[in-house]
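The aim of this short unit is practical: by the end, you should be able to scan a pair of folded records and say something sensible about each. We start with the first protein, listed as its amino acid sequence and then its structure tokens.
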Amino acid sequence: MAEEEVQWDARYPQQGQTAADAPPDYIILFADFFLEGNFRLSATHFMATILHFYGFHISQMSPMGMVRVRHFEFLCRSHGLEHDIEKFRLMYQLIRNMGFYSFALQNVKKILRSCPLL
């Protein structure tokens, strides 16, 4: 049995179009998600937890929001800490800027004052 070819029907925006002009039932993925946000398919379970908890789609998250979620998860993993929504919410608050969601640090003191020697 031959494999079926998947048709993505990807569309690139025309000059002057924004994400708000996307056709119905399409999602928006920005190159910055992959280049600057370190987003990789498949996304982690923690990323899905964040999206579900806050109730928005990944196409509504800014690249900087993506960086902050992944950074939090990577730091927890590298220090052997459990990464969960409760800890994330202690450090970050949801913000919305120009129609996209991101996260801002909230009252978190810097632990390291200088870079440790390797």
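Turning to the second protein, read its sequence before its tokens, just as you did above.
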Amino acid sequence: MTTNIAPLEDRLAMAQTVTNQPDGPGKRIGKRGELTMIGNVLPGGAELFRKRLPQFQAEAAYWEDRVGTVQDFRILLFDNDSRFLLSLVYDGDFKPYLIDIVSQAAPWLDSIASGVLEGYPGMDSPDIGEWVISLLHPADFFYVGTPDATVRDVKKMQKLSKAVSDLLDAAG
């Protein structure tokens, strides 16, 4: 099996411009920023997290829709459930994103993190920003498929696509 690979110049012409977030840690490509946190799990926290997990997953769309800028969000426990990795891609700048999550999803995030993540001060604590920043590890490599399409843009395109499909179905 032979694979045709484009010449190096053609591959490099597709390169994305990766910058640092202008107002905080993390990388940025177009309208998308990344955030990765690594920290410790409290003793018994992994069991509590997994017990609550079905509810977290069931409510994710509601809470993340309120925030309105999250492209993807994941949490994993590792090192025999002693550490966690939280990683997400979001639209916009770092500080407005933090304000959005505190103002729009605090109850949900408190239920995820309370009793699970070491040092978690609670979303209503004045120390929440400092806690988040202390655990951040900007990505060394970051790529996004559509760097200039926000969550709002994607939802608008989905509605438009459905409307056109419905119109074509009705006309057919």
